[in-house]
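Table S5 (text form). Sequence records supplied for joint modeling of the two-component complex.
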Amino acid sequence: MATEAKVDPMHQFTIQPMFGTDQMELLGYNIAITNSTVWMAISAIVLWAFVFGGMKRELVPGRWQMAVESFTGLIDDMLEANIGKNGRKYVPYIFSLFMFILFGNVLGLLPLGVIGLHPFTFTSHFTVTGILAIISFGIVLIVGFAKHKLHFFSLFVPHGTPVPMIPIIFVVEMISFMVRPFSLGLRLFVAMMAGHVLLEVLSSFVIGSSNAGLQYFAIAGIPSFLLMVGICALEILVAGIQAYVFALLTSVYLNDAENLH
Amino acid sequence: MPQIEQLAATYSSQVFWLLLIFGLVFFVIGKGMVPKVMDTVALRDKQISDDLAAAEAARNKADAEEAAWRDRENANRAEAQALVAKAKAEAAVSTEKKLAAAQTGIDAKLAKAEARIADARASAVAEIEEVASEAAADIVKRLAGIEVSAAEARPAVKEAM
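The corresponding structure-token record, covering 422 residues in total, follows.
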């Protein structure tokens, strides 16, 4: 892209079928293996390798095992803090969710362009984040109704609501509840996309200004480049935070389903 | 925005592969590997807490043994001190007795000796009186020519002495 005359900051999100599978179909639906698919698979494989490295089950853990155990411990503590003892059964799901998103975010940030590969951040697609949000929301609904039956609707009436207010509060709470999957999915998608667009725009400033001449490079290129360095660090932080927020909000919502109010 | 422009063309592929790959992640990693990792952590925590409990128990036992030993030691010491005190008291009593016996023996000897001395003195005095009386009678006879018996001279001698 750097060699193109005009840099399109949105081009990096384009989904391209790979390995000539663009006509692959299942029950009439297109299931082409795309760059998105490949990066999901890479994230899954890297995640598997990461966890596998921590499965030595040594009494005195090495660094790698320590790293894996600190991630499982993080999720375990988060669920215990938000849900309580009942929360431990969600560790596999929340761990998978958190690590899959985290690895997707971080791997998508890798500067693989310098060796000719095109990194793709699948979490910058609301199709993906939306599905993950719907899965989380679906688990909340299933657990909530399985555990509390129709009593689950009392979630929409907070304690101490005056009786005349109940219908209005119920509707308001219901709307805020139904918005959850959208906010959950959109937050991650927007955060990832915004960061990548920002980096792309800044890099286009650097390239464009250096093509325009030395004085433009000094005025616009160097500050943009310095800003890029900072934004890169920020993006790594955002990659972690957004994965954590997704997992944290899922566990908070699961707490509603598990314990009501 | 490719996310929207390509939505119709790619949503099915995205959804299918996400579900497949995330499903694999969940079942293989989340369900298969994470519990083992957590078991290891739990096992280690358990072992650490067990070891700590064992150490605590061992320390308590050592403390108890030390306390028992101290009690025993104190009892022994008290016993020993009692023995020493008893021996001391006995020794003192026997010393006192011996001293008293010796004292009475000495007193008796002293009294006897004093009595003997008094006798000796009395007899010596009597002898001296006798001798003095005889000498006085002799002296009187020679000087005055008067015959004075020793018995008559005695009161005078006694007076002079």
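Note: The radius of gyration of chain B is 62 Å.
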